[in-house]
Amino acid sequence: MDDSVRLRLAGFPRERTWLLPALLAAQETEGWLSSEALTAVAEHVRVPPSETCAIATDYATFRRVKPGRHLVRVCAGLSCRLAGAADHLRALEDRLGIARGSTTPDGRVTLEEAECLSVCSLAPVLEVDGASHGRVTSVAVERLPMWFRTRRPWQGDVEASDLPQIRALGRTAQERLAYLRSHAEARIRQRPEFRFLVQGGSCGEALGAGEMLKALRLLAAMRGLDAEVLDGACHGMCSAGIVVEVQRAGWPRLTFTHLTKDIVPDLLSALVGSAPPLTRFTGVAWNDEGWRGLPPASRHPFFAGQRRLIMERCGHLDPDSLDDALLSGGYSALASVLDRQAPEDVVEQVKASGPLALSAAEWEVCRNASAAPRYFVANAEEGAPGLFADRHLMEGDPHRVLEG
Ligand code: FES
């Protein structure tokens, strides 16, 4: 074990509460948990070494055997099996000359089966060095090294002081919200003419949305287009990716599906040209009549039967933009509750809502706790393969998670 693990651990308080995060950090640093790393964690958070060892061997997330320099995991979930993942796994075993669960003799590649990787609509899925790749073909399996990369560095902790300070004027919460909205409206008027939101999040990443983002930025700049290209989120049509939403003042929002980066030049030409029909692209327009040959969302097979409530803004807003959330109605309910209801009444109301009673009880425990500061921890793990609506919401509209 080198000093980098100790350096990482130095950032954690020396309390047992930090055992799991400290183990994760140690694993992230070295790629696995050596005995020395387990001892260092135990010493740092002041627990017996047997406890770190028990946890490291109990959770499947933790790795007690050093993997190869590149880690290849083939999803063995049902959707992926049906879509041919088992064939991919056999092809990789043949190609690498190793059985699943082992590492090549030169220590270059470890090949493993994985539980559902939670992007089932993109089956079959491979994960290489921590990044998922969907709709993997046998040709892509032949070219496996193209996905090799350096493992992602540990994401630095965000300090509250790193976040922008937001000040709002007003006597009531609703007045302060109106103040924030008026400033957001002023900023939105300064935005570029075109806004492209590329399907981001887990599904978009697995389809290569990062490459689409780069291609759109490059080609828009080369054409001198007044445009911003943003890492957006998924509308819910993961399997129709790559999806890009186009927003422009005076137009309905346009959502294009099944895009590849090769088609970007044609898409830009069609958008900035003298209103040619958009019929050669698939997608929808978010109005009642449709737009230049794109059908309205109400006639699209995926959206037609839906009345979107919790996820209505997913895909339409930049998840990182508070302005987007404010101008699409975000935080209205919160402001109203802050002005009109006592905290105890809110807890009682949530308790009475039935299925949410457990979380209401948790809120009450939190409210009655005397410790400070109090932390808000959102758990996006739904615990069953193929279920990832919570993660989807967090990626697409984190403001909804905060507001409730
Ligand atoms: S079954 Fe493969 S991602 Fe879910």
Characterization of this structure:
This protein is an alpha+beta fold and 404 residues long. It is globular, with a radius of gyration of 24 Å. The model has no long low-confidence stretch (mean pLDDT 87). The protein has 3 domains: 3-58, no CATH class; 70-147, Glutaredoxin (3-Layer(aba) Sandwich), CATH 3.40.30.10; 173-326, Glutaredoxin, CATH 3.40.30. The chain starts with a helix and ends with a helix. The chain is built from 17 helices and 10 strands. Strands 2-3-1-4-5 form a 5-stranded mixed sheet. The protein has a 5-stranded mixed sheet with strand order 7-6-8-9-10, with helices on one face. Helix 2 runs antiparallel to helix 3, helix 8 packs antiparallel against helix 13 (332-340) and helix 14 (343-351) packs antiparallel against helix 15. It has helices at 3-9, 19-30, 35-45, 49-58, 78-82, 85-96, 138-142, 173-188, 201-206, 209-222, 264-272, 322-327, 332-340, 343-351, 357-368, 389-396, 398-403, and strands at residues 70-75, 102-103, 109-114, 126-128, 131-133, 194-198, 227-231, 244-248, 254-257, 282-285. The site of FE2/S2 (inorganic) cluster has 14 residues, from helix 5.
Question: Could you name the key traits of this structure?
Answer:
5-stranded mixed sheet, 17 helices, alpha+beta, Glutaredoxin, 404 residues, 3 domains, 11% strand, binds FE2/S2 (inorganic) cluster, single chain
